[in-house]
Specification:
Strand content of chain B: 15-25%
Structural class of chain A: alpha+beta
Number of strands of chain A: 17
Strand order of the largest sheet of chain B: 9-6-10-12-13-14-17-18
Helix content of chain A: 25-40%
Radius of gyration of chain B: 29 Å
Number of domains of chain A: 3
Largest interface: A-B, 52 and 53 residues
Number of strands of chain B: 22
Oligomer: heterodimer
CATH class of the largest domain in chain B: Alpha Beta
Number of domains of chain B: 3
Largest sheet of chain B: 8 strands, mixed
Shape of chain A: elongated
Distance between the termini of chain B: 93 Å
CATH architecture of the largest domain in chain B: 3-Layer(aba) Sandwich
CATH topology of the largest domain in chain B: Rossmann fold
Chain lengths: 456, 455
Amino acid sequence: METLNYKELGLKAGLEVHFQLDTKEKLFCHCLTNLIERKPDFTIKRFLRPVLSEILEKDIVAEFEESKNRYSIYEAYNNETCLVELDECPPYELNEEALEVALQVAKLLNAKVVDEIQVMRKQVLDYSNTSGFQRSSLIAYNGYIEIKHGRVGIASISLEEDAARKMQEGKEHVVYRLDRLGIPLIEIATKADINNPEQAKEVAAYLGMILNSTGKIKNILGSIRQDVNLSIKNGARTEVKGVQELSLIPLVIKSEISRQLNLIKNGKKIQPEVRAANLDGTTRFLRPLPGASRMYVETDVSQILTKDLVKDIRLPKLIYEQVNELKNKYNLSNELSNEIVKQKIDFEYYHNKYKNIKVGILSGMLIMYKDEPNIINTLDLLNSGKITKDVFDEAIHGNLDLSKTKIDIKKIEDELKKIIEEKPELSVNAIMGILMGKYKGKIEGSKLIELIQKHK
Amino acid sequence: MLLKFNIYFLEYKSYLIYSFLLWLMKKNICEAGDYVEISTKDEKFKGCLIPSTNKDIYVLKLDSGYNIGINKNKIKKIIRLKKFSAKKENIGKIVQKKNLRTISILHTGGTLASRVSYETGAVSAKFTAEEILAMFPELKEIANVHSHLVSNMFSEDLRFSHYNLIAKAVQKEVEKGVHGIIITHGTDTMHYTAAALSFILQDLNIPVILVGAQRSSDRGSSDSGLNLLCAANFIVKTNFSGVAICMHESMSDENCLILPGLKTRKLHSSRRDAFKAVNTLPVARVSKQGKVDFISSYEKRSSKKLKLKLINEKLKIGLLKSHPHMYANEIKTYSNFDGLVLEGTGLGHMPINKIDNLTKENEVIYNELSKLSKKIPIVMTTQTLFGLVNMNVYSTGRKLLQAGILGNYTDLLAETAFIKLAWLLSNYNKTEVRGLVNKNLRGEINEKLNKEFLE
C-alpha cells in the first residue's frame, strides 16, 4: 500500500465504540450478565413485522417484504433468562449500576449530561432483539478527549441493550440465544475529527483505557466492538462495522480509503453504505446506509432526571494513574503494575496483610494465583515462613505435605558442615545442588548460599 | 454616575428581552412537532419539539433520533425553524374481491394497529380498514374487511352501556349479512365483554371473535397480527357460531386458541398466552398458516334470528373476595346494590363462624350476609378459578346455603357470574333470577369437570 497524504485526501473519520458493561444485572431486568454455553432449556419461535411510520417508507417495507417469511428461534433458559428477554413482560427500571458507569464515563470524557434521560426504541427487524427494537438512551453529548494527536470531540455517549447472540443462520430462519440480550452497552461516538489512521487507533486505545478505569467493562472476546465511519474528498460517507481488534483500525481505514480511491480513479460513484470489517482489515458490503433513525419513545420506562444523580458521581482513578501510583509507591515494574491494575487486584490490601513477603514476589503470586481458592491460606504460610516461594505452586494446589516443610536450619547447617568436611573439593554451586535437591521448599536458595559461604 | 446608569440600562434591556422571550414561549409560538432551535447559555440544540410529561422539561427529538429533556429554566431562546405539518399518508385503496367472504372489524379500544411518527415519535392507533390492511397485508387474501370504531378506551374503563353499544353494533353488521365479526378489545377485561356478549346476543348465528394484543402493537413483536389473522381464518374457514376469544396458545407465534366466551380468563398480566379456558377445553386451535383443528364441540351456524337482550345500565352489581380478617362492613357496603357475587375460598366459603372470642366479627358477617341475601341475589363462586362450588361439604357451606347464597354446584368464573347476574336482573324478575343463576343457559356452567382442564 503506497503512503497516502491524508490531509490532501481530506480524510474525516469518526469512531463508534461499544463497550459491554460488567454490571451484575442486565439493563432492564434482573438477569445476570453471563453468557451461557449449556444447551437451552427451551426455545420459542417468533415472527416480526415492522411498526410502520405515518409515511410508509419504502426501505422498511422492502426490508419487511424480504424478511416476511423468515422467523427466529430464540434459545432461552428456565433460570438464567426471564420474561423480559422473551418480550413477554414489560421492562423493569433502567439499571442504576449501568447508569452510574455511563455518567462516570460522561464526566471522564468531559461531556455534558442531558437534563432528562429518555429511553428510546430503535427499530431493528433482523430478529436480534425479541421486541423488534433496541432500547437506547442518550446520556451525554459534546465531550472531548486530549491525546497525543490533539483534541478529538465526543459527539455522544449512549447507554443501550446488547442484542441477542446469533447462534446459527439458515435460509428461512435465524437462531438467537437470549443470554446476551439486554447486557448493558455504552456506545461512544466521536466527532469526525480524526484525520489519520494512527490517530484513530490512539483514540480507540484511549477510550478503552478510560472505560476500563471504571472497573465495569467486560473483559472477554467480543466485549468491545468498534465501528469506523469515514469520508474522503469526492468519496462518500461509509460506515465499517465490527472491527474487533484495536490494531486493525488503521488497516481498515487504509483499505477503505484505497477502495474508494480505486473507485474514484475508475470514474465510479461511491455509494454511502454500511460495510463490515473482515479479519484481514479489508471490508465487505453489508447494507445501504439507513435514512433517518427509526427511533421512537420507549413508553414502558419512565424518564430520569439527572440533576441529583450527577452530583453523586465519583470518578475512578484512571488506569495510567493507578499504574504510576503502584510503580512509585512499591517500586514495582511497569509490567507487574499494569497486570495488577488490569486484574483489578487491591495490592495495598495484600501488602498490608503480608508485610513479610517481598512486593515483587507478592505481586507475582497474586497475578498468577489470584483466582485459586487457596490463595489466602497459602499466602499466610508464605508470610509466616512455613513455606518458601519455591513450593508455592504445590502448596496452593494442596500437593505439599506441610508436616515435612521447613526443617530446622541447625539440621541443614550440620549436614552442610559434614559435606564440607568429607568433600572439601566441592564448589559452592555443587554443594548448593546437593542440598537444594534435598531441601527444596524448606529453605530459600539465597539463605542456603549464605550458609554455605559462612562455612566454606 | 453615567457608568451606573449604563449598567442599569443594560440590565433593563436584558430584562426586556427576557420578558419578551418569556411572553413568546407563554404564547406557545412553538408547538409540538415544530422543528426548533433551542439555545441555552452555552449550547444550541436543533430538533423536533415533543410533548413532555414534565412541565419543567422541554423534550427535543434530535436529528440523531434520540429524545433528550432540557430544563426549561436553562433555556434562553427558542426559534422555530420549520412549522409542523403532518405528512400525507400514503395508503392504497381497497379492492373488494368477489370470491372472498366479508368480515367486519369493530374497534372498542386497545390498539391492534399502530403507526409511529418518526418525526415526533408519537404512536397513533389506526382504525380504518385501509390502515389495518396496510399493517396486515395478509388479511387481504383471507377476507374482504370492513372496519368501524365503536369506542376507544382502556378496557378497564368499560361500563355496562358499552356492552350494549357493542351488541348493537354487532346487530347492525349481522343485518348487513357479514360472514363474521372481529371485535378488537383491550385485554384487561376482554373476558367480561365476551361473557356479556354471550348473554346479550341471543340466537347469534355467526362467529363474533374478540381479539386483543398482550404486547402492544407499537412493537415489531406484537402478538396482534397473528391473533387477528387466526381469528379471520377461523371465521372464513368454519361454520362456528357464537362468541369466542382468539389469542396466542403459547409464547411462540405458531398457534392461536379459540376460547369459549363464557369460560375464559386472563391468567397472566403480560404473557401472550395469558388467556386460558377454565374448567373446559378451548374450542379450536388455529395455526399461523390458517389450519383449524376443533378441540371441543360447538354451536354451528343456523337460520336463527339474532335478538338483543341488553343489560340494564343502571344496575349495581358487587364483586367481593373473601379473605382472612374480614369485617361485616365489607358486606354492608352492598346494601343498596342489586346483586352481589362472592369469590369464596375453596369450595365456596366465607369467614362466618364464631369459634372463640377472637372470631366474634365472623358472626356479624354471617348476620349481614343473611340479611343482604334476603334483599338481593348473592352468588357464590370460588377464587381458586378451577373446580366447582360445593357448599354441602363443610358446615360453613351449609350455613351459607341456609342464608340463601346461590351458585351451589356451579363452576362459574366470578367474572362470568358477575355478568350473568347483571344480565339476569336486566331481563327476568327476582324469582326467576334466583332460579336461573344455577342453570346453564349459554354454556357458562360445565356439569362434568375433567382432569385435563388443569394441566
